[in-house]
Known about the structure:
Order of helices and strands: HHHHH
Radius of gyration: 20 Å
Number of strands: 0
Helix content: over 70%
Distance between the termini: 31 Å
Number of helices: 5
Shape: elongated
Structural class: mainly alpha
Amino acid sequence: MTSARTFSLLAAATVVSGWLAGAALERSAVGVRIWLTMGVESWATFSRGAVSGLTIDGFLGVAATALIIGAAMSATFDRDSDRVTPAPLIVAAAFSVLGLLLTAKAMSLVQLLAASPPAADLPPIFQAYLIWGVDFRAAAAAVAFVAVVWTLFDLSAAPQRSGAVETPAE
C-alpha cells in the first residue's frame, strides 16, 4: 500500500511538473511563433529582459525534480509495498533531471546575449535556443509530467488490483 507521504509528494510533483510542462509547451506553441514573426533581434531584446523567466523555470525544475525524486524514494521505502520504485516514476525523475540540464543550456545561450553580440551572430544563438531551450526542454517537461500522472493513477489503483477477487459463496 502506498503511504500518504508518497501520495502527497506525487500530488505536489504533479502540480509543479504540470505548471512547468504547461509553460514550456505554451512557449513552444505560441512564443516561438511570435519570435519568428518579430525576428531574431526582437527575440534577443526580449530575452535580455526575460532572464527572470528562465530563473523561474529553473526554480520550478529544481522543485519538480526534488519532489519527483522524493516521491520515488518514498515509494521505494513504503512499508507495505514491494519496495520497487514504479517504472514511470523512474522515467519522470530521469526526464526531470534532463529538463534541468536543458534549462542550464538555455540559460547559457541567453547569457551570450548579455554581451550584445552583433546582429549577424544572433541567428545561430536563436536556433540553438529553439532546439535546446524550447523544443527539447518542452518535450522533457511533458514526458516527466505524463510519467508523474501515470504513477499517481497507477499507485491509486494498486490496492484495488492487489486484492484477491472473492467469489460469493453458494
